[in-house]
What we know:
Chain A has 310 residues and is α+β, with helices and mostly antiparallel strands. Chain A has helices at 63-74, 98-113, 120-135, 143-148, 184-189, 197-215, 219-225, 232-235, 242-251, 273-288, and strands at 3-13, 22-38, 42-49, 81-87, 151-157, 160-165, 172-178, 194-196, 256-259, 266-270, 294-300, 307-309.
Amino acid sequence: MESIRVFAPATVANVACGFDIFGFAVASPGDEVVLTRSETPGVRITDIIGDEGRLPREASRNTAGISIQKYLQHIGQPELGFEMVLNKQMPLGSGLGSSAASAVAGVFAANELLGRPLTPLQLLPFAMEGERIACGSAHADNVGPSLLGGFVVVRSYNPLDVVRIQTPASLYCTLVHPDIEVNTKDARFILKNEVSLKNTIIQMGNVAGLIAGLMTPDYDLISRSLVDVIIEPVRSILIPEFNEVKQAALDAGALGCSISGSGPSMFALSRDADVAERIGAAMQQAFLAVGITSEAYVSEINQQGPKVLA
Amino acid sequence: MESIRVFAPATVANVACGFDIFGFAVASPGDEVVLTRSETPGVRITDIIGDEGRLPREASRNTAGISIQKYLQHIGQPELGFEMVLNKQMPLGSGLGSSAASAVAGVFAANELLGRPLTPLQLLPFAMEGERIACGSAHADNVGPSLLGGFVVVRSYNPLDVVRIQTPASLYCTLVHPDIEVNTKDARFILKNEVSLKNTIIQMGNVAGLIAGLMTPDYDLISRSLVDVIIEPVRSILIPEFNEVKQAALDAGALGCSISGSGPSMFALSRDADVAERIGAAMQQAFLAVGITSEAYVSEINQQGPKVLA
């Protein structure tokens, strides 16, 4: 096999209460990579589609490129040559795990082309290197679920310990991306370094409740647990109409609604595909009330992670 | 029925990572209440055994007494008369949920005598009133599991939301109570009111991991998650030889070991009864190395909660 086309999914990180530890994959949107073996050593990006020229073309400065480079170093074959076309199928700076999806698609494609020397879980550290250059920290709450599929807990970073959580068969995600931009670094910068013990206890209760709700499954418990008292009150000020959009989602039947990753996208969970569609329409309408256009995506939780396209 | 004898179990609150939100019940020790209907209105304590005269005999100042009084007010029958004998079968100020077990035994007994007008879950707020006068705050992480049995998450206090978590059939608790005393109010007073965001994230990861580990079940995940970076580093200074005793438990095969409630008792979890016994001996030996005698208790997780004795 000399060439391969791989899709890696967008992801919702944090999931209300689980800042830096929870994330799940969706069916769409996502990014595509076409990776081709080359005689010339090293990783070269021949084209990036859909980024309006904003992403670095230099492989070592691109999330997908650096992930493949780190992977090749690890398996002891840094001299191998690859040409990559990156097809960005979702907005940048959206809170949908755009950089993670590119990194995962890239490193997954390379591993497939080389006959799968590593398992998906073993690819995680290399995809995290992509996050490091994109966001300033090698966080795993987007690359984890994009790579492994499903709902993922990053239990620990040191040592890295990623746990996949079973989710109910009927659990739908509505994603709405307003056409505004929030920089991930800014979104992290405004957070306080200290949390009250009181709020830590409240948040831990919701973290425990959400995991128990997903695994039981118990939709009411999921709903009661989709509450973030630490991050959302701070970051939501970066999203115009946040409270109105959230309320519109809840009124339309959402189990819960919060910021996707560092925003500005917002996600809502529900237990029915039709309800999930209605939630999307209601959220878009609420944004539109102040003149903000948006894109909506509805899907089940993506249990597969990356996939090789025909 | 005019008289009833009820046992309510001791409990391990916090369970390493779950400060104020996690607790589970053990088979022993526990407290017993004998409650008898009386012609004289109100709750009277006729005897308390095993407290060396340290607990208040006045019903409204006693955890079991106040719980029954609040319960009778709630069901609209404050004029009913009861005489209570409280048999304390575990040390006071031990971190084993002594006050909770008394409160639960009392209110459970009253509800049984009156033909069960309320469910166990509905009794919770009255048992919490016992905690309020014993510890200064109406926490639920001891009374919850003592009343409901099993492993309990207090997801929220406002509104009160208590969730029972399934635990593996083979999960054993070793409890060791050193013959020293730590006041619950002191143990709470030394805690800081602020937690770093970094430690909050680490603790949330362990909270999620412990719930997932218990429900899967996955003993390795349980073991990796039994880590407390917020409370244990502060409170353990109140327990002589804490680090040595903990290490002795881990060396003897414990999945994890930490402070039971506010201490000074320490608990360890394991997946085998023989190992649990060996852990107890090793922990007692480590305390004895500095001249501290102790009591050890080994039991499975108590799934039943309070029980009526013949």
